[in-house]
Design brief:
The complex is a heterotrimer of chains A (542), B (365) and C (248). Chain A is α+β, with helices and mostly antiparallel strands and 542 residues long. In chain A, 68% of the residues lie in helices and 6% in strands. In chain B, 68% of the residues lie in helices and 2% in strands. Classes of the chains: A alpha+beta (542), B mainly alpha (365), C alpha/beta (248).
Chain lengths: 542, 365, 248
Amino acid sequence: MKFLPSGGQWVWTLLLAPWILFPIQAQPPTDAAFLSTLGELREASYSEKETIAERLSKTGHPSVRAVLTGFMEDRLCFRNSDRKVFLVKSNEGDSLNLADPLTLKDAGFASADSLTKIGTNNGLRHVLRTTIAHFALSSPDVSVRMEAVREMQQSLDEPTVALLRERSGVETNPGVKNEIATGLALASLDGSDPNARLEAVATLGKSVSQVVRNRLALLLENESDAKVRRAAAAAVATIDQWRTFYSAIETLFFGLSLGSVLVLIAIGLAITFGVMGVINMAHGELMMLGAYTTYAVQTAMPGHIGLSVLVAIPAAFLVSGSTGVLLERTIIRFLYGRPLETLLATFGVSLFLQQSVRSIFSALNRSVVTPEWMSGSLRLNDALTITYNRLYIVIFTLLVFSLILAVLKRTRIGLDIRAVSQNRAMAKAMGIRTEWVDAMTFGLGSGIAGVAGVALSQLTNVGPNLGQSYIIDSFMVVVFGGVGNLWGSLIGGMSMGVLNKLLEPYAGAVLAKIFVLVALILFIQARPRGLFPQAGRAAEDK
Amino acid sequence: MLSFRNWGAGGDRGGAWFLAVLAVVAVAVPVFNQAVTQSSPFHLSAFGITLIGKYLCYGMLALSVDLIWGYCGILSLGHAAFFSLGGYAMGMYLMRQIGARGVYGDPILPDFMVFLNWKALPWFWYGFNHFPFALVMMALAPASLALVFGWFAFRSRVTGVYFSIITQALTYALMLAFFRNDMGFGGNNGFTDFKEILGFDLHSDRVRVVLLVVSTAALAASYTACRAIVQSRAGRVIRAIRDAESRTRFLGYPVESFKLWLFVFSAVIAGVGGALYVPQVGIINPGEFAPINSIEAVIWVAVGGRGTLYGAIAGAVLVNYAKTYLTGAFPEVWLYVLGALFVLVTLFLPRGIVGLASGRGDEKR
Amino acid sequence: MTVRDKRLYLEDLTVSFDGFKALNKLSLYVDPGELLCIIGPNGAGKTTMMDVITGKTRPDSGTAWFGRGIDLLTLTEPEIVSAGIGRKFQKPSVFEQLTVLENLELALSGPRSFPKMLRARITPAQQERIDQVLEIIGLSPLRASLGSILAHGQKQWLEIGMLLMLNPELLLVDEPVAGMTPHEIERTAELLRSLAGTHSVVVVEHDMSFVRSIARRVIVLHEGQVIAEGDMDKVQKDARVIEVYLGV
């Protein structure tokens, strides 16, 4: 790496030198110094503002980046009455939502008239962008550096390239290094040396980013050198292939996450139907109870959103589970052996629960806040990004599934449940309290519905109709997978989810649903008892 | 106890009473609306006629559900789909009758098509300007759906709760489909603002009275047809299928074919009910396909007493009267009542009100 | 053996379930009008044999002919019924929500399709046949009662009556007297004896005294094969039979 850049870049080098020499702030950030420097911006000329910005970033204050970004985007202003500086978070008509520049916390609303914008011009914005990028590039946080490099790839002017070149020697993280290399390669596509371009194309061929692909496609049109053109064409083809591959994975993942919700609901249904031969039409409403429990828990502990979701899981299990036990003891046990009647009675219960929720929480949808650790997304590469909430739901589903499987296979109550489902009379003769097992089984199935509700509350709004909107799909899963079979529910749910998401781009969500239904009806022609037909007594009844 | 063998009304006192009540309605409604002056407290308003007409159409839906559920043990949770299809067929005729009097004044295209910028009438709308054609479609549309769906379902021996769930999914899918604008059925607004039927103004009391009398006749005819079926030897086979399907198959009866015939016939009754419903209430939209509607129809039958045809109709009228009253007076309470009805009837009143009132054994269960 | 035609020919039938041979090259014949009893311990293959004859189970190999002209292995269950083979299952399965009369009426031979049944009326000849069967099974006084209120034995008779309505040439009767009172057993024996001659009757039964009271010919099955054949006295003296069955 050459330390001294050549030509006109020396201005930049001078400007940026302090950070290159002293990458991270040396002195502890002081709010007062930061504030006073910030205050100078109010009366400064554009050229003065450049140096002020520079000094601001030198303070190393935690909110430097946000403030400078706001400045660059023309969102920095001061209040006419007390000349206090604020960041504008958003504007709703004439009233602006302000944030304190020190803490970045909400500072209420003010009318646009009462504020004066701290102006910028093109030159200043340019400087600011670089300053911010540079500041970000030297951040100890890898993801911040990564984001900065990606940002810089969008506008590769000379100073940016110089900056990147500097960093490529200092950077230690391989991912960021890779991004820097991509950025530099992109820049050298504009160079005059065909060999350098060829080399750049070779580097870029390993990327999967849309930006790189578009740039290469552009090169394909304008490139004069045949060798470079060939290489570029090959690189574009490779990138396209990978992008198609990753988008397939993304669709698959979307399908799996949708399927996970269905699986969670279907597991509960599978337990109640498989073991007890009961179709519980109120299952969706038990799930809804779980979602409302999440809402209630969150309302009860407003300061701990992240924790509240974890608390909600057992809480929802208990609420829905005990409702299920109550339901079994008071209604369903009188209807055993009469599946159609059970279906009707539980439907009645579902109406009752819906209306109760409407009376208690009102008919309006409630939104459950997604905790911080579940928001955002995991960027695997330039072509594949996975949102955390969906990822966690897939993992959560697999956890619940394994747990249920373990309970059924490894515990005493699980053994009792299986015994009763296979031969009720024999189980009774062996001294198993079948009534108690029935209640527990129903409670377990209902409790899982509640847990499914917690998961669902992270994906959609919570309302009285929540149960209904998913229940038909989950019944389809149960029918598809084979009634009462846990593995059937898992595979059935996941494949229904994936199928839905695969069809959606071609047919739209509604038609996709209809296609899935028709496919299911045809599937039943071939396998009337689903993928995993249940052997034994329950299967023999109607 | 051998009453089921007799064909005369004398052997079926409930049925005879029922037909008599229908006849009274058919006579009394025109009299109280047309002959009694408006100022009289005994005058029956247009609203009242519509309400009674609505109940009668629901009665036909209940009848069709009872025919397959009460007698053959097939619990359809999607029967409102057939009702709605019949309704849509009638709706298409009524839309074409509007002609150039729509908001956009297009002589051929209904308003919603003009709104969607369509240039020509879709092929499946052809012919609906002719009443006889529309009339045929009111029965044919639900019948075809029932035939295709039933053929697939019964052939692969989808029974019991499986069948119920699949029918529910069927009506749900249809609801989603009809909500789509590009299906050509008016999207989520459906059809409304009808003007005339066969050239008569739909808003005049006289036409309302005629529609009501026609509904009464249709219900009576459907009832008689259903009774003829259940009292025939085929009816015995149908009840045998309900009690022990595989045993019936073993006696050499083509069980699937019996179910299919019955299912299709039942769909036709539901469709005709829907077709009569639409001109009386003046609107049809995809909401009619909602699964809850089909399930409500089942509870009418359960309340009235399944396996007794007039019981099912009585159940439809009673529950809907309660619904009209409660959703007006205490809207919050209605769903509680409906929910409680489901639970209480299945737990304590498996034979419905009719079962409570009579001790007849031959139509038990 | 005479050279006369048989009613039923079963030859070399083999049926295996997951490697277990329920029938192992089973061969047996039924004469017209005879009353044949089949005995054997549990798992001997008696029910599987019935299942093969009625088309419920298909054998891995072997042949099953009804008379000289009908290959049972190519027919469906209902076709076998209309060919003239009736089966009474172990568990009584009458239609509980239909009356005795209606139960018999359902079993009447004649049209089976929905449109035809819609128009079909009971002819005087059919009414006579119903009355006749009611007489045979002794349920005339209970003709209007629901199937659900009948006693266990009465249900069994009603079911035999339903089989008779079909006027089958071959009657397969699975454990007819299980759970019956001695009086009912006696009447059942009488009933079966009276049917032989006009019908071929094959009875599978565990109750030895009952078998002794009705059988002319007895076949003993064991592990899917015939191990002994003849009248009751001869069978009871057979060493293998004593070993596998009676001796225990």
